[in-house]
């Protein structure tokens, strides 16, 4: 026979476990809730942290380390930093930089050019970094790898880049769902405008049909569409700027657009290497068809004698500081030829508010940056906006739109 103590011992132990287990579970639950609440507090306050001067300083300080990477890997790192909410946040706002063109309201006139976020991975986060608009792409209908690596080269001494990516794209099937998600997000909480840079596939039997496919698939999820007919890194694309080819393209594209109840504004992106007669022909066609705008300019295949870097002999399109004057001159001439009737987005060699201001006075209504970010980091964006605002005030302009084309005689 068991003694009374022996009989009661298991019962006491069971009772002990019965009371101890809930206490332990309760403590665990409180810890999980505390961690979750802390995590949520950090998450919702993360944008505020990324907006601090210290965070911007850290981001700028890290740029020399990023530049030690292979250029294409550094570019990829930049996209991933933005995609995963690590890019700094810019909350500066200048009312005088607000502008309207093509029926769209730009909350600031500074955006980022096509080529950075090629696959629509970081749209919202780039807006948070102070950019008012961007161009996704170039986007081709079918996925294509582009040209073999290496295909991106830094020209340090010249603050320039040569690239021959060859329109590497994940194609409509991968990119359109991301576009749709981001476009719907922007409809609810507008931070910026989404442009899609449309391109044709390498070796396509019908380039125009590729652009129409881009309009069909990407157009519904964009604020504006850009026909990239000037990429120098894919055989045959720049030939689409020839008068007969461009007329055929616009004929077919507008025949399709006219079947739609409404569509996003349509722009063409032009080369800085156009001959004077080619500029005149394009200007006439743009006016004739009522093209909504022009993006000027793409990269150049020319190589100025001033280039110092060893990589200057690499094939591809040159962008950055050496492109600035050529791009600005093309803007000025196309503004004159279209009598200031067609809005221009200026891009090419912008690294300061003064550079942006030069393009605006030459005829650009808004500007895009890209290559300079490789050398100066995202801190360049608020710097350009601040400097541009100061230049407008100095010259007595209440709004950036008042300065557009002021250096051009019509």
Automatic annotation (TrEMBL):
Its EC number is 1.3.5.2. One of its GO terms (biological process) is 'de novo' pyrimidine nucleobase biosynthetic process. Binds 1 FMN per subunit. The keyword Oxidoreductase applies. GO terms for molecular function: dihydroorotate dehydrogenase (quinone) activity. It is a single-pass membrane protein. Keywords: Flavoprotein, FMN, Membrane, Mitochondrion, Mitochondrion inner membrane, Oxidoreductase. NCBIfam families: PRK05286.1-2, PRK05286.2-5, pyrD_sub2. Belongs to the dihydroorotate dehydrogenase family. Type 2 subfamily. This is Dihydroorotate dehydrogenase (quinone), mitochondrial. It comes from Blastocystis sp. subtype 1 (strain ATCC 50177 / NandII).
